[in-house]
Design goal:
Elements (H helix, E strand, L loop, with lengths): L9 H21 L8 H8 L3 H9 L6 H10 L6 H21 L4 H14 L14 H14 L2
Length: about 150
């Protein structure tokens, strides 16, 4: 098995970094000194389709350096561009790291996760449950106790 510096949170880190960048873009759009812009107004200013604005703000799409510069200018805050570019570089670095880990295929990453899983002594699992009425509470408690080892 290849030697991996695997952190099971790597992919989550990428997603969180993309979402954080999106939140920052939304903050810029909403905190203009001349007043807030709606997503549709921002899209119109940028000449983009409205879904692109939404996808960037929710982290579903990764911005390009050009997108970030245009966003900073369109939100009347061009001085925010260096920070946005730095965030994007950090995100791209995480993506490159994740891709390097997957370069030889998913098997090595899955084996690393499996090894961590095998070393785990205790699993904590949350089971969300809605009890529809007071008369069901005792029955649900009995069933839950029966499921407990």
């Amino acid at each position: 098995m290849p030697d991996l510096d695997f952190d099971g949170d790597d992919l989550i880190d990428v997603e969180q970094a993309r979402a954080a960048l999106g939140m920052r873009l939304r903050e810029l759009r909403m905190s203009r000194s001349a007043g807030r812009l709606t997503g549709a107004e921002m899209a119109r200013r940028l000449g983009w389709p409205h879904p692109k604005v939404s996808k960037l703000e929710t982290g579903k799409q990764t911005a390009t350096p050009e997108d970030l510069y245009a966003w900073a200018v369109a939100s009347d805050q061009p001085d925010a561009d260096p920070d946005l570019q730095a965030r994007l570089r950090g995100l791209e670095s995480r993506v490159r790291s994740w891709r390097r880990q997957l370069a030889s295929g998913h098997r090595a990453v899955q084996e690393a996760i499996s090894a961590e899983h095998a070393r785990t002594q205790t699993f904590r699992i949350w089971k969300n449950c809605l009890v529809a009425g007071d008369h069901l509470i005792s029955r649900v408690r009995r069933e839950l106790r029966a499921d407990t080892p």
